[in-house]
Amino acid sequence: MPRTEPTALTLLRRTHEAQVVDVLRRLGAVSRGELARHTGLSRTALSSITGALIGRAVVVAGPAPAEGVRGRGRPVELLRLHPATGRCAGVDLGRGRVRAVVANAAHQIVASGARACPPEVPWERRTDAALELLDELLDGSAAGLEGIGVGLVGPVPAPGERAATVVRLLGERYGAPVLVENNTRLAALAEAVHGAGAGARHAVYVHLSHGVGGGLVVDGRLLGGASGTAGEVGHMTADPGGPRCRCGNHGCLELYASLPAVEAAGGPGDDGAVARAGRMTGRVLAGLCTAVNPELLIVGGELAALGARLLGPLESELRARTLPAALRGLRIVTARLGDEGGALGAIALIRQEAPPAVNGGARAAAGPLAGCTGPGSSG
Amino acid sequence: MPRTEPTALTLLRRTHEAQVVDVLRRLGAVSRGELARHTGLSRTALSSITGALIGRAVVVAGPAPAEGVRGRGRPVELLRLHPATGRCAGVDLGRGRVRAVVANAAHQIVASGARACPPEVPWERRTDAALELLDELLDGSAAGLEGIGVGLVGPVPAPGERAATVVRLLGERYGAPVLVENNTRLAALAEAVHGAGAGARHAVYVHLSHGVGGGLVVDGRLLGGASGTAGEVGHMTADPGGPRCRCGNHGCLELYASLPAVEAAGGPGDDGAVARAGRMTGRVLAGLCTAVNPELLIVGGELAALGARLLGPLESELRARTLPAALRGLRIVTARLGDEGGALGAIALIRQEAPPAVNGGARAAAGPLAGCTGPGSSG
């Protein structure tokens, strides 16, 4: 008989671990017998799986309350999730500030904070600021931290060397998986999952700011693309005969719908300049809405705050140029999460890409943080 | 203690069924004891799961070969997959013909055939032709058929009434799940999975024919979109100042890159007309490649057969207008599966969307087909 592939066994084991965590998440504290009944796993398989989860401090075992003690033999031991299991952190190393958010297993925000960090502050100092902020928000311990998502500003695609440094520094300090993404794309994910989109399966996000960026959410997940440019709507052609863009192409949307472009055309007080930005955005997004067919189009960034003067021309151009069947059911909304968007998207990314008890879970070795002088001690 | 949700239990059961089928697929014939060891499931859970799979004729139980018979007690019974388990059928109710393909669990094509069916043949007769063809290709029995995928030509989105009729007729006759999709999108999926793309995670397909259509494959799966228009690149704007299209918008790609458009501009022998079709296609796809960032762009349909006269201008316009980072690693290829593309895509869709032993598996009731006079008897 052929031997079972090790990879298949590993996958099976992860599935079983996830089943156990899922049952504990739903039922709270249960005995080993109840766990066997609710998962359908054999006692032998369960024993090995719970042993590993306890070793990684994802699950804790303890005596049942008094009424659970039987007349003879050992008291019944109950298994439950570690209280801190399921915490996730999101960090946005954005323009002008560093922001971090920590959420619990119930997806509630338990801590949020920011440190001013002007654009001219060097890269290493920004990372230090992020570490200080995280130490504070994590209350002195990385126990139960399932992962850290990090949003970076930067050229497209995300800068390899910086991303690697961030992954190394945060991973070493907190002993949890670290994922890095472009922070505009993370804002797109956050808006689709929690914000203006609240559960949208397919969403297109456009961010009209110093540059023009965006993100595509497909089936509830962020689309990265083959080389990490997915969602770069700022470099779709708005005018085939337009001037040359910094990317090398001509007539890119960013030349018409960024803050500097609006400034150059008369400023945000000039209705014509603002309307042109809206029209060009609508023209480019029309093609994307026809071909990607989202249920939701989210407009964010400083220019979105200009309201109807921008959104009116955007929407009328979009409606004139989108395939009617694709327009059916399309909602156009403005972004809602503001400055926390990138950090919240980083948490959403961790929850999607690093499922609990498989890649994540508290590490047994993760005790109080080195270099952190205790809860609330940093400013 | 709160009760377990029925939905969670159902999901758990499906996971366990899939584990059992997966083990049998890898190991062939195994005893119940071996199955318990390889899945980690308890005997009690296994008994219920294998009972259901045997009832649905997905799994068959039989005595082991002679050496398996022990001195006392019952001979050891081995479980294996039904020999026909895992067959899938794909049907393309396309322009000018009906085509069908049947593949086995090893993804080999075991039967393929077509019936001429000119465009003027009424809808009901086309469905009859598909049923006759399928009866023949399935060799008189629907045993082990996991599902039937069907590709339809049609306005966007796929026509609801026709789709419902096809699902009903095929479902009643073969007792298997039926999924319906636009046949150009199915060709896109087939090219990405088996054809020119062979395993591409992210692909954009454009079909230049009587109309201009296409499909997007994201993470290996076909993107349908919120209202079923995903991939409709023919109605993305190629020239903002262009003439009115039948869809109501102006300057759509289809007005420049369809067979009728090339005919009207001088015909496929006219280099200028062909080059314009290529240029306009490249212009529209450039934006899509920037924002969706595929690793593969596949050009299919009759115009793709014109070769470099079309593909040269297409590629140079595409390269001039796509974000450089998105161009990195992008391959441009022509479609390879020809007339079988739609039917093969229909099979790929069934394999992705109706996993074995969950939605599919042979139906116990599926015997020889009513109305089919036996293998090979139809012409």
From TrEMBL, chains A, B:
Domain of life: Bacteria
Family label: Belongs to the ROK (NagC/XylR) family.
PROSITE patterns: ROK (PS01125)
InterPro entries, per database record: ATPase_NBD (IPR043129), ROK (IPR000600), ROK_cs (IPR049874), WH-like_DNA-bd_sf (IPR036388), WH_DNA-bd_sf (IPR036390)
Protein name per the record: ROK family protein
Organism name: Streptomyces qinzhouensis
